[in-house]
Design brief:
Blueprint: H1 4-13, H2 26-41, E1 56-57, E2 61-67, E3 79-86, E4 90-95, E5 103-109, E6 115-127, E7 133-142
Antiparallel strand pairs: 1-3, 2-3, 2-5, 3-4, 4-7, 5-6, 6-7
């Protein structure tokens, strides 16, 4: 478990304001933003995929900020989860504790430090025999961020 100093640092770094309930044209923006991030990590497509969207392995750490039922980000509860697979429309990841939230903000980061924060609707959870939770969700929209390292700026 992280110590209180590292939790405070995470909370300060990923402090989000109110999360909007929707965004016009958000699917195209989500696909473009996440597609850019994927291309920075894995520049080649995996061609042997049976699903509608290509799944890419995403063995990277992801920052997860829960969003409560009223749309308020719970910045103090920001934690780190482990990515498994990603598409332009969604992601699945591993987490050590069950997540009681349906909506979260996932902040994805490429190896060059570029970040994108995407509001995600968690759709399913499986408990693994190793004691972890495998969670999956659909990207809803990209949160606007500013600065040289943001894909949404």
């Amino acid at each position: 478990m992280a110590n209180s100093a590292s939790v405070a640092t995470l909370a300060a770094e990923f402090e989000f304001t109110t999360v909007p309930t929707h965004s016009d044209g958000s699917e195209a923006k989500v696909r473009a933003t996440v597609g850019q991030l994927i291309s920075r990590i894995l520049p080649r497509k995996i061609t042997n995929e049976r699903r509608k969207d290509f799944r890419y392995p995403y063995p990277h750490l992801v920052y997860l900020t829960p969003v409560d039922a009223s749309g308020q980000p719970l910045n103090d509860l920001t934690t780190v989860v482990v990515g498994k697979n990603i598409t332009e429309r969604g992601i699945d990841f591993f987490h050590q504790q069950p997540l009681p939230y349906r909506r979260v903000i996932l902040t994805l980061e490429s190896e060059d430090g570029t970040r994108a924060s995407v509001v995600t609707d968690l759709l399913w959870t499986r408990f693994t025999k190793q004691g972890w939770y495998d969670n999956g969700g659909r990207f809803l929209y990209v949160l606007e961020q500013h600065g040289p390292e943001s894909l949404s700026a």
